Amino acid sequence: MLRATIPFVSQGLRALTRDITECRTCPRLVRCRESAARAIPKRFTGHTYWARPIAGFGDPRARLLVVGLAPAAHGGNRTGRVFTGDRSGDWLYAALHRAGFANQSTSTARDDGLVLTDAYVTTIVRCAPPDNKPNPTERDRCIAYFIRELRLLPQVRAIIALGAFAWDGVLRAARELGHVVKPRPAFGHCARAEIGPYVMFGSYHVSQQNTFTGRLTEPMLDAVFAAARACSRG
After folding, report:
1. CA 91, CA 49: separation in Å to the nearest integer?
2. In a 3-state reduction of DSSP, which class is residue 205?
3. What residues make up the domain containing 37?
4. Which residues of the chain are under the pLDDT cut of 50?
5. Among candidates 88, 78, 79, which has minimal Cα distance to 36?
6. CA dist list (Å): 206 to 84, 87, 214
7. Which pTM does this prediction carry?
8. Closest to 161 (Cα-Cα) out of 201, 121, 120
9. 144 and 19 in contact (C-beta within 8 Å)?
10. pLDDT tens digits, residue range 76-122?
11. What's the pLDDT score for residue 55?
C-alpha cells in the first residue's frame, strides 16, 4: 500500500495519507474515479485499480515540492501513486531523475523501487476529475489536505507549480497560512514568486497536450528544475 512506498514517513504524513485515501467528500469525483476503474482500457486489461484519492509521495525532509493538478484517471487513479503510470509521470520523473532528485527515471507502479531524495510530489485535488477539470467547490474542499501537507513538510523552500491550476492552488494555500503576496503573481513558464518562506516557480504542465505539441520541451522543464534546485539548496 502507499505507506510502504514512502520510507521514514512521519507520523503526521501517515495520518494525512490515511485521511486522504479514505475521503469520499465529493460525490462527482468519487463517481469519476470509480467509473474509470470499471471502464478499463484494453491496454490495462487485468489491472486492479486503486480508485481512491491519492496522497503525496516522496521525502518528508524535502526542500523541493512539486505540485500538479490532480491524478489521471488511468495513471495515479490506477496505480495508487501520484504521476505514476502515465505519460505525464514519464516526463516528470525523468526530469526529477536528471535533476538528481530521483534514483530512477521511470515511475510505473507503487512497488517499482522509485525513491525521491529531497523532493516531494503532490497535487491540489486528490481524485481524478471528469475531463481533468475539478470545479471550484471540489478544489476548495481538497485544498485543506494540501495546507496540512505544507505544514508537515517544514523544510520545503522551493515549489514547482505544474500549470496555472497548481499555481493558483499554492497561492490559495499560502494565503491560509498567512503568506499573502500583492500584487498577485501571474502564472507563466519560468515565472517566479516569493511567498513567505517559499519561492515558487511556474512550469507548463507535463500533460501530453503540452509535451506532444512542443509547448513544453525537456530543456524547458530542466531549466525550471535547475532554478528550483539552486533555490532549495542555496
Report:
1. 22
2. coil
3. 2-233
4. 1-8
5. 78
6. 13, 8, 11
7. 0.94
8. 201
9. no
10. 999 999 999 999 999 999 999 999 999 999 999 999 999 999 999 99
11. 97
The cell for 97 is 531523475
Q: For the chain, state the CA radius of gyration.
A: 16
Q: What is the pLDDT of residue 164?
A: 98
User: What single string gives the DSSP state of each residue in 103-117?
Assistant: SSS---STTS---BS
- Tell me how many domains the chain contains: 1
Record the cell numbers describing residue 153, joined without a space: 513538510
CATH (domain of 146): 3.40.470.10
71 closest CA partner among 9, 140, 3, 127: 127
Q: What is the pLDDT of residue 8?
A: 43
Q: CA torsion 96→49→130→152, rounded to 10°? A: -50
CA distance 166 to 29: 18
How far apart, in whole angstroms, are the C-alpha atoms of residue 69 and residue 166?
5
Distance of alpha carbon 2 from alpha carbon 25, whole angstroms? 20
For residues 49 and 77, is the Cβ–Cβ distance under 8 A? yes
Q: Which amino acid is at 198?
A: Y
Q: Which residues pair with 152 in a beta bridge?
A: none
Query: What's the DSSP call for residue 197?
Result: T
Task: Yes or no: say if 201 and 67 are a contact pair by the CB < 8 Å rule.
Answer: no
C-alpha cell at 178: 498567512
Grid cell in block for residue 112: 517499482
Contact at 8 Å (CB) between 4 and 57? no
Spatial distance between the Cα atoms of 28 and 71, rounded to a whole number of angstroms: 15
